[in-house]
Amino acid sequence: MPTEVATATAWNFQIPATASAEAMDEPCPELSSSVSTRDSAIDARSIHSTYTPPRKMTSKLQGLFHHSNTEPSPGKRHSMNLFGKSRSSSQSSGSSSPPAIPSLSQKYGSCKKGFVSEGATAVIRLVTKSNCCSDVYCVKAFHKKAKDDSDRSYMKRMTSEFCISSTLRHENVVKTLDLVIDEKGRYCAVMEYCSGGDLFEVVRERSLTDEELACLFKQLLRGLQYMHESGVVHRDIKPENLVLTSCGTLKIADFGVSDVFQSCFETAPRNCRGAVGSHPYHPPELFEHGNDYDGRAMDVWSAAITFYCMKFRRLPFLSATKDDASYAEFLTALPNLDWAPFANMSQAQQDCLYGMLDINPKTRWTIKQALESEWMQSVEVCQDGALKSGWKHYHYLPTRR
């Protein structure tokens, strides 16, 4: 399947003057660009949720990932209603029948002018529900089908993302609330709005302490652990796809290339296919055999690279291939575990990060192992910014509505 290439937001700020950064022998590549190769390049930006036990979502995906060969009876042709109950022609005869999917304006109100961000397949806008305490929601409006795209592939991309995101419920995963149609006839996913910015913006505009960085990293790992326990892999973990609430709770966003690696009907996990996501965050196995890899191991590697970006404000290397000079230096340092960027970190931090950056996906640490590490066990996660000691974390941007 052909893929689309999209250029993500430029990282054009300088590395902070910290002891850890100064210990590096050579300057690593600036985060000047992040090339994203994906089946459908979507830049979801924003979006509170409560925890529910894992694996509740898998049965809801039965219809999407386990297609039935049965056909409707000749006397009852079904109209298209992808996300609700189908309506037979005998039930929907007459022009006054209500639409299968509600309109955005009727249910939530009018969107604000302009948009938060725009990707290859969608735009992100904000809407204020004026009849309900003026709550603000994030609306992801999918572009209409391209002329060279088939109805089947278009609907599969849309339904896959919505079905996965709408069934995940965890405090560190964005909550998708609804599916509506806007004034232009586009399908729109309505999500909770996270006004604290995305992690890319937060790291660029704020100077965070090591404790705040570790808190954010642990929240990311908690969200990924929930997803993996639910049978879902993200496959595009990076700072731009992690958003913050107004009090600093981190949430994983953008499920445009997510995949179900094990449903409730499967006894064993299966590998993912297709080189999706962003090249600088790809593990080495994707460059070697991208059509057959463990999506969970990919998420682990991408999470570790994301932490590197959070701490040093730059990428460690542009691609995990031997022809990349910075990656070659990383490989040279691996046998003795003496990679310069990690030199000033504690032994507990190094153990965790080296485990997550194991070049062998079979022996690479899992998210569970990372969370059970000495380092992560010592990290206190704030509750909406508040710590038990009475101090606060400020790893978010001021609310902007």
Summarize the structure.
The protein has 401 residues and is an alpha+beta fold.
What does this structure look like?
The chain has helices spanning 19-22, 62-65, 89-92, 104-107, 151-167, 199-205, 210-229, 284-289, 295-312, 325-333, 347-356, 367-371, 374-377; strands spanning 4-7, 35-38, 117-118, 122-129, 135-142, 176-181, 187-192, 232-233, 242-244, 250-252, 259-260. By secondary structure, the chain is of the alpha+beta class. It has a domain at 4-34 and 197-377: Transferase(Phosphotransferase) domain 1 (Transferase(Phosphotransferase), domain 1), CATH 1.10.510. Strand 9 (242-244) and strand 10 (250-252) form a beta hairpin. Helix 7 packs antiparallel against helix 9 (295-312). The protein is globular, with a radius of gyration of 22 Å. The model is unreliable at 1-98 (pLDDT under 50).
List the helices and strands in order.
Answer: EHEHHHEEEHEEHHEEEEHHHHHH
Approximate shape: globular
The CATH topology of the domain at 4-34 and 197-377 is: Transferase(Phosphotransferase), domain 1
Question: Portion of residues in helices?
Answer: 25-40%
Low-confidence stretches: 1-98
Biased composition (Low complexity): 86-101
Keywords: ATP-binding, Nucleotide-binding
Region (Disordered): 21-101
Domain Protein kinase: 110-376
